[in-house]
Amino acid sequence: MFRRNKRSEAQDESALDDDMLVVVDRSVNPYLVLFHEPAGYRAEQVRGLRNRLVAMNPDGEPKTLVVTSAVRGEGKTVSALNLAMAFAELERQRVVLVDADLRRPSCERYLNLNSQAGLTDVLLGRESVDRLLRPAGYRNLMLLGAGTRVDNPAEVLGSSRLDQLLQRLKERFQYVVIDTPPVLPSTDAGVLSAAADGTLLVVRLEKSLKKQSRDAVRTLHDMGGNVLGTLVTEVRGQDPESDSRLAYGALAEDEEV
Ligand SMILES: Nc1ncnc2c1ncn2[C@@H]1O[C@H](COP(=O)(O)OP(=O)(O)O)[C@@H](O)[C@H]1O
Ligand SMILES: [Mg+2]
Q1: In a domain, 167, yes or no
Q2: How remote is the CA of residue 139 from the centroid of ligand 1, in Å?
């Protein structure tokens, strides 16, 4: 028989039911804070963004959301995953993450999953999306991976099947979060942004160049995207985890208010 360890506060926060054995997979990307540190300040920041997006959608209609940025390495994939996980925490919300970075797909790797057929296979008409959706390994979050590698990603994304696919996903899910390639090097992100209901631009503090982020917003607007706002990552300075003013857990017995 297995004996359960004493549960930590963090595990209590994320537990679905009392008897669930919580296994944290260390190979999952460490910056997926909703997964690794669900009770931490950073996870709470992501929930704040999620709540603002929910508030922008008072009728609770299904929505497609693109997460993008000007150039590579700014934290798009990690942000898209964290946001999708935060949506999946909400009760009764069906959420799917779509890896639409056909050039450098990474959602499966960050989740420590093997790559399988996915988006490209649907867009090329080889498979139906319903057969390819799979659990992402976090609550009820589902994943549509990038799929079989293609050497003409722009053409594949330009397919008229893209709109049909997003419509189909909106019939099944409340929130469809879409990870994309960067805006400036190719037209893929612009095409996806135009097809989605809203777009979030990731800016990596101190690393992203203001001009590039501005150019990316202009490009997205020009292509018909609806840019809802920016998502700032890697805020430096004092580590928020060590700033007691930013913690708001239950009071310890000897702690003053
Ligand atoms: N908040 C963060 N702080 C430091 N490194 C991060 C952070 N978020 C992501 N990373 C790392 O930065 C790299 C790029 O992140 P990724 O999300 O893949 O960017 P993009 O999708 O924009 O190319 C990855 O190695 C990732 O692990
Ligand atoms: Mg990425």
Answers
A1: yes
A2: 23
